[in-house]
Structures are given as structure tokens and as C-alpha cells.
């Protein structure tokens, strides 16, 4: 039971007499939500057991390496296929059968090769040219089964025994598999400048047949039937983006370091000149947006004034272009920019006009938060702990998911060229296949590798285990965030409820708050995190269903899914808001989650106007700071990567798309600024909640003085008793 001197000012029933011994969050508290704590520990132990079982049964090589018809990995070191990292299909035309998507198996021999074919050729062509030049066979044999060395064997026998492919086509590797090298020329799909070719039996075939077969294989590997041509184009763009990152990573890192320095300097300056800096942010953003409007108008007028130029060309006329500089030559682009910036400018000005008094209160809260962080500087480094814990959770989840996905034994099925074979697609054993009568009933059939799986209880419930892996992962991530929020709230509450600052602030408030949260409130934090994780799980399921229903014609089902997604999005954000305030109450008063959430909810509802205005104005001001920092670094990066800084033009790397490092710097800068400002946001939220409690339970009398700063008391016309003030002055 808590000692009398540890009981904080209560706002339930009759207010207690002021206790001069109170120094912030109570220290003598009991464990809360013990049942949920036990369940949480059991789930963690079960999660460890799940990872262990997955690591025992899983094999990441099944995900990394493709597998040939004999169940051997392509490209794995220490095996005969060590230098053969690409999977080659003997007759990819047979993959055009729609049954490929059902059976997840292309009915043709698959072989590991070191490189893909670079020319059209057939087995018949090879036999004809072999009489004059042995090199034809030396090239063709690398796509035949190892050990086959009889180029004079008849085509019928070769096709029956699947010794060699009946034909090869120019290909290139994609997803570690040989796919035809499709190129679109003048709107016509070609392979090696050909639209038709001859297959191994002398029949003329169209390149469209190759595309259909490649689409089936791609759909089998990716789970969706997307076009191979578009995927290859995406790969080409991806390679260029990778090259840009390889050439500019050093400068991207410098940009992010600059962001860290600017963010840290911003925080240090905010500690002393919060009001000046925040007004500078507001007017700075207004000025930047205003300059943007003027620049957009100037570009628009210039392009419009060009005779027979690009001013009359619209975005729809040129379509999608990977080079964004093309769009900057259109007047319509600058008109869209100008209208968007004008709307943003108008919204900012209107908000400032109507909420100027509330902005003053928000500035006072931020100043108070600056002082709190000034006294508890260790809070600035706590996000590093959160980042490390989140990285561990993400890594464990990803590794477990990969091992679960790669669990299972090799499953072999009967592959038969005749479509009417009664044994087709049945499981088989490659070691005893030759002793069965399948080869007699279905000549030419083979027992080939199909996929990894199994019939055991573990293999049947792998999908369920993946869902459990995802749910516990979400639970742990939310718990890590909750632990950080509760820890910071406890530290900042220690500052607010110290009547004499900094004399009454306890030593090591951050460590003390962290210890209290872990020792007493693991169950409460786990309870709130579980509620949020379940809602997020439902959202993921809805996203999956929405993805599956995109091609469906059931409009009602899609409308229902859309409504549910919207409802669960709102529910998730509401729970996040309530959890955040509940954790603050837990850090202060040490009660269980439900009681703290209820107390926080009714406290906020009794002050709904202050919550709606002050909280959002504070968030808006912090957001402006993030935008100014990331925007400033982004402008600097833009001028650098577009070679508009004469002093260091020679240092700029050669890039395919300058927007790749630019967007990376802007996005990374915003994340870094967001991480620094999150500490401030939690500080302001904690002080604001304490401020509301202070207003309700205290009156400024000698028995119940206000704990808020003198600035806040002046704004709200609140005063403390002079007698108590004199005592405090003498105490100092």
C-alpha cells in the first residue's frame, strides 16, 4: 500500500489536502494487470518456441535458390550446381497451360545452367550443323542433362527421355530463371528482332506464345498473373535506381547527418527561444510557400509565353515518364503546383488568424517542455533504445517468417507430356519411380520436383503459424512503443509535479520511470498493446481481402470491405490516442490499464475544447518544424544533385534519376526530425494532461497551489497564494 506522503493530488471525490512531501509519480505502487502480464510472458515463450521449431524445419535456401527437377538447388556452394545459379526450362511453351497455376508445376524438365541461351536454335538445327562444325554441339550441350553426350541420338528419343531441349530461345535471367528476352519495337513484341520462330518439331510459332508461357511461370512464382514484359521493364528501372544509390550513398549519408545536426541544434535553441523559433517557423513556412507560388507562376507564365512550345502540351498527352524533368517543361505542371501551394498558404493563414491566442498557449507549453527536457536531457537518447528493440522485433519476425515459409520436404509429382495420363500430377518417389508401371502406362513420364510441403500436422498449420507470428510481432512492436511512451511520461511527470524546479525533481527520473514501467506495469502495457495489435491484425486481413477482390465484379463486397477498412482505420487511431493518454496516467498514478484509460478519457472529455485546440495546435507547430527541417535539407539536396551549386559541381555523382537520392534525403530527414520531435510531443502531451489535472484539483490556495509555470498561470489568469509563494521563495 502506498504511503500517505506518496499519494498525489487526487481528482476523485473530495480533494485531499496538499502534501508538501509529494514529488511527482508515486513510487510505492503495486503490480497492475498481472494476468495479462503472465499471458504476455507465456506468449513470448511460445514465440521463442515457434522460432526454434521454424529454424529446425526451415531451410532459407529454398527461398534463395531455385530448384531443378531433381530437387537440387541452383547456385548453392558445395554442390554440383555451385556455378549454375539460373533455372532453365526445356520447353517453356508447355508452361502456357492454365493448369500451371493450379498445380504450381510447369510440365517440362527444369535444369540448372550457368547462363541463359542467347540465340534461337533447335535440336534438329544442331544435328545438321554438327556435321560441319562441332562447336554447335558444344554450345547446345550446356542446356542438356549432365552426362548426355550423344548428339546423334534421334529427336524422338531425345524428347521421350528429356535429354535435351527441343529448342532454345534468346533469354535473360529474371528471378534467377531464364525468360525470353522480350523487346517491344514500334509497338510489336519481339525476341531477337523476330516475331515468329520454329519450335523443336519444325512448327512455326508466334512470340505471343512465349509471352503467355512466361506469364504463367511468373504468375506461378509470384502468386499473381502479371505480364513478364512489364516486370522486366520494372527490373531495368530498379537496376538504374540501385546504381544511383551505389553512386550517391555517401552524399545521402552526409545529408542525413546534416539533418541530425540541424535537428539537435533546433532542440537546443528551442529550449531557450521557443516562442521566437516557432513564430519564425510559421512565417518561414509562409514565406517559403509564398516564394513557391511566385516561382510556379513565373515558370507558368514563361512556358505559356513560348510560341509553339510545350505550354499547350498536357500531362495526359505525354503519359507516364520516368524522367521527371519532362514534366517540368509543361505549363500545366506548374499550374497544378501553384494552385496546390496557394491552397496550403490560405489554410495556414486562416488557422493562424482564428487560433492566435491558442498558439500562445501552445508556445507556453512548448517552452515548459523545453525546460523539462533541459533538466532531463537523457530523454533525448531514449529513442535509441526504442529503435534497437524495434530492430530486434523486426529481425526476429522476418527470420521466423522466412524459416516458416521454407519449412517442408521436397514433394515430387508425375510429369507427363500426354495430357490424358491418369497418373499426371500424382505424388511419386524418384528413387522407386522406375520400378512402377507409370512409365509403361504413360511413356515419357518423369518423377520431377514440384514444391516444398508435407502432410504432417506442422506442415498443415504453417499458414496459421504465420498468422501467429504476425500477431505476436505486432504485439511486441506496440509494447515496445508503449514502454517508451510510459517511460517518457513518467520522467516528464516528475518534472511537472515538482513544486520547486529543479530542486524537487528526483534524481535519474528516466531510469526510475523505466524501472517502474517494467517492474509494475508490464501487464498494463501489454494489455493496451494487445488491443491495438488485434485491430491492426484485422486491418491487415481486410487489406488482403481487398487485394483479392480487386478483380472481382461483386461491387457490394468491395464496398463493404472499403467501409470496414475505413472503420478500422478510425478505430486504430482512436485506440492509439487513448492508449497514449492511458500510459501517461499509468506513469503518474500507477493504476491498471482500464482504470487509467477511463480516467484519461473522462478527464479529456471534461476539457474537450482544450484538447481539440491545444493538442492539435501543438502537433501542428511540431509538424511545421519537421517540414522546415526536412524541406531545408531537401532544397539543399536538390541544388546539389541537379549541379546548381557551382563550388561543388565536380563532386556530384553521375545519376540516372536525380530524384532517387533527393527523395531518399527528404524522407530520411523527415524521419530523423520526427524521431527528435517525438520526445517533445510526448513531453507536451504529458505536461498537458498534468496541466488539466492541476486545473481540476488545485485552486491556487496555500493548501492546494498550482504546479503549472508562471507563464501558464498568467495566460489563464491563475494565481497561487502569496503566503505559499513567500514560503517557496524562502525555501529557495
UniProtKB/TrEMBL annotation:
Recorded GO MF terms: antiporter activity
Location within or outside the cell: Cell membrane
Residues spanning the membrane: 34-56, 249-269, 276-294, 334-355, 375-399, 472-499, 520-542, 554-571, 620-642, 654-673
Matches recorded under Pfam families: Choline_transpo
Catalytic activity: choline(out) + n H(+)(in) = choline(in) + n H(+)(out)
Keyword Disulfide bond recorded: no
Signal peptide coordinates: none
Keywords attached to this entry: Antiport, Cell membrane, Glycoprotein, Membrane, Transmembrane, Transmembrane helix, Transport
Domain of life: Eukaryota
One Gene Ontology CC term in the entry: plasma membrane
Keyword Transmembrane found: yes
Membrane topology: Multi-pass membrane protein
Membership in a protein family: Belongs to the CTL (choline transporter-like) family.
Role noted for this protein: Choline transporter. Choline/H+ antiporter.
Entry protein name: Choline transporter-like protein
Amino acid at each position: 500500500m502506498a504511503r500517505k506522503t506518496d499519494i498525489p493530488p487526487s481528482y476523485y471525490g473530495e480533494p485531499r489536502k496538499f502534501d508538501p512531501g509529494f514529488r511527482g509519480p508515486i513510487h510505492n505502487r503495486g503490480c497492475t494487470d498481472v494476468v495479462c502480464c503472465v499471458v504476455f510472458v507465456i506468449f513470448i515463450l511460445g514465440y521463442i518456441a515457434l522460432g526454434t521449431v521454424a529454424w529446425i524445419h526451415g531451410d532459407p535456401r529454398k527461398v534463395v535458390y531455385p530448384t531443378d527437377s531433381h530437387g537440387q538447388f541452383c547456385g548453392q556452394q558445395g554442390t554440383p550446381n555451385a556455378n549454375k545459379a539460373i533455372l532453365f526450362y526445356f520447353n517453356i511453351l508447355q508452361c502456357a497451360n492454365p493448369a500451371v497455376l493450379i498445380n504450381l508445376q510447369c510440365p517440362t524438365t527444369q535444369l540448372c545452367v550457368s547462363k541463359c541461351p542467347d540465340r534461337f536454335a533447335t535440336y534438329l538445327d544442331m544435328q545438321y550443323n554438327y556435321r560441319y562444325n562441332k562447336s554447335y554441339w558444344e554450345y547446345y550441350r550446356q542446356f542438356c542433362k549432365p552426362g548426355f553426350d550423344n548428339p546423334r541420338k534421334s529427336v524422338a528419343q531425345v524428347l521421350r527421355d528429356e535429354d535435351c531441349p527441343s529448342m532454345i530461345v534468346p533469354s535473360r535471367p529474371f528471378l534467377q530463371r531464364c525468360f525470353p528476352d522480350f523487346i517491344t519495337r514500334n509497338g510489336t513484341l519481339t525476341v531477337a528482332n523476330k516475331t515468329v520462330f520454329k519450335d523443336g518439331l519444325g512448327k512455326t510459332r508466334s512470340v505471343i506464345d512465349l509471352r503467355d508461357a512466361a506469364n504463367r511461370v511468373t504468375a506461378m512464382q509470384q502468386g499473381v498473373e502479371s505480364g513478364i514484359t512489364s516486370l522486366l521493364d520494372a527490373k531495368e528501372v530498379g537496376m538504374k535506381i540501385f546504381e544511383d544509390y551505389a553512386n550517391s550513398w555517401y552524399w545521402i549519408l552526409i545529408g542525413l547527418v546534416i539533418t541530425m545536426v540541424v535537428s539537435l541544434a533546433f532542440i537546443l535553441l528551442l529550449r531557450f527561444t521557443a516562442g521566437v523559433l516557432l513564430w519564425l517557423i510559421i512565417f518561414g513556412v509562409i514565406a517559403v510557400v509564398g516564394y513557391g507560388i511566385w516561382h510556379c507562376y513565373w515558370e507558368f507564365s514563361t512556358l505559356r509565353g513560348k510560341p509553339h512550345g510545350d505550354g499547350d502540351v498536357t500531362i495526359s498527352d505525354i503519359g507516364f515518364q520516368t524522367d521527371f524533368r519532362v514534366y517540368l517543361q509543361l505549363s500545366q505542371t506548374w499550374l497544378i503546383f501553384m494552385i496546390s501551394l496557394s491552397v496550403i498558404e490560405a489554410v495556414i493563414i486562416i488557422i493562424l488568424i482564428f487560433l492566435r491566442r491558442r498558439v500562445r498557449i501552445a508556445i507556453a507549453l512548448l517552452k515548459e517542455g523545453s525546460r523539462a527536457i533541459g533538466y532531463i536531457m537523457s530523454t533525448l537518447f531514449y529513442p535509441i533504445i526504442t529503435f534497437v528493440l524495434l530492430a530486434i522485433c523486426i529481425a526476429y519476425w522476418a527470420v521466423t517468417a522466412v524459416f516458416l515459409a521454407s519449412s517442408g520436404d521436397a514433394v515430387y509429382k508425375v510429369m507427363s507430356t500426354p495430357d490424358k495420363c491418369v497418373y499426371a500430377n500424382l505424388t511419386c518417389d524418384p528413387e522407386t519411380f522406375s520400378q512402377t508401371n507409370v512409365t509403361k502406362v504413360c511413356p515419357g513420364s518423369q518423377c520431377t520436383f514440384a514444391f516444398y510441403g508435407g502432410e504432417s500436422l506442422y506442415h498443415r498449420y504453417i499458414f496459421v503459424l504465420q498468422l501467429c507470428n504476425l500477431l505476436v510481432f505486432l504485439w511486441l512492436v506496440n509494447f515496445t512503443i508503449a514502454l517508451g511512451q510510459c517511460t517518457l511520461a513518467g520522467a516528464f511527470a516528475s518534472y511537472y509535479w515538482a513544486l520547486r524546479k529543479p530542486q524537487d525533481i528526483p534524481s535519474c527520473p528516466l531510469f526510475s520511470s523505466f524501472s517502474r514501467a517494467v517492474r509494475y506495469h508490464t501487464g498494463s502495457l501489454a494489455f493496451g498493446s494487445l488491443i491495438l495489435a488485434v485491430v491492426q491484425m484485422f486491418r491487415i486481413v481486410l487489406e488482403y481481402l481487398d487485394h483479392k477482390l480487386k478483380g472481382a465484379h461483386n461491387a457490394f463486397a468491395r464496398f463493404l470491405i472499403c467501409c470496414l477498412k475505413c472503420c478500422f482505420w478510425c478505430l486504430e487511431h482512436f485506440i492509439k490516442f487513448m492508449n497514449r493518454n492511458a500510459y501517461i496516467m499509468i506513469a503518474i498514478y500507477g493504476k491498471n490499464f482500464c482504470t487509467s484509460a477511463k480516467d484519461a478519457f473522462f478527464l479529456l472529455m471534461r476539457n474537450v475544447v482544450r484538447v481539440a485546440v491545444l493538442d492539435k495546435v501543438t502537433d501542428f507547430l511540431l509538424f511545421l518544424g519537421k517540414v522546415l527541417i526536412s524541406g531545408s535539407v531537401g532544397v539543399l539536396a536538390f541544388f546539389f544533385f541537379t549541379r546548381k551549386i557551382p563550388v561543388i559541381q565536380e563532386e556530384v555523382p553521375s545519376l540516372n534519376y536525380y530524384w532517387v537520392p533527393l527523395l531518399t534525403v527528404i524522407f530520411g530527414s523527415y524521419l530523423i526530425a520526427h524521431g527528435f520531435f517525438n520526445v517533445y510531443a510526448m513531453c507536451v502531451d504529458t505536461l498537458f494532461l498534468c496541466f488539466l489535472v492541476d486545473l481540476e484539483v488545485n485552486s491556487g490556495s496555500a493548501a492546494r497551489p498550482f504546479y503549472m509555470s508562471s507563464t501558464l498561470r498568467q495566460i489563464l489568469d491563475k494565481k497561487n497564494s502569496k503566503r505559499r509563494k513567500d514560503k517557496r521563495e524562502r525555501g529557495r
